[in-house]
User: Fold Nucleoside deaminase from Leptospira ainlahdjerensis.
Amino acid sequence: MDTFLNHKILPDFLDRMKSLISNEGKEIPSLTRIYQKEKLIAESSNEVEKNSDSSYHSEILCLREAKERIGTRYLTDCLLITSLEPCLMCAGTILLSRIPTVVYLLPAKQGEGISSLSIETIYSRNFFPELICIPANLSKEAFKSFFKARRKKFN
Assistant:
């Protein structure tokens, strides 16, 4: 899986993210994809602003699409890749979906992402995915410029 991730999934993901960044600006530049056995089955970007609903994170939307597409509640043979470490809301949905591998390009602040879940939470679910952080400057700069523009707009 790691070789496939580095040679196929990651470069393709970064290319798609570049196009998302250049075409958007109104939404947080979060892109999520789910692969099943190395095949892309779902892709989504944030729609929080578009829908005025804070639950429309790219991870949640992508999980819904993947489950609908393959017709199952659990995604036990899938990989999720996203531009920013999943928040705690998304983390809960990822755990309940039983995705074994989560890859993200930008870590969240301490206490705000999936990597900060407590041992008690992990133990109570009896499941926790492998977390892989692959720092990508593209993701870091996209989020930085998005929030810089937002601060200017509202100041």
Remarks:
- Strands lie at 31-36, 39-45, 78-82, 101-104, 130-133.
- The longest strand covers residues 39-45.
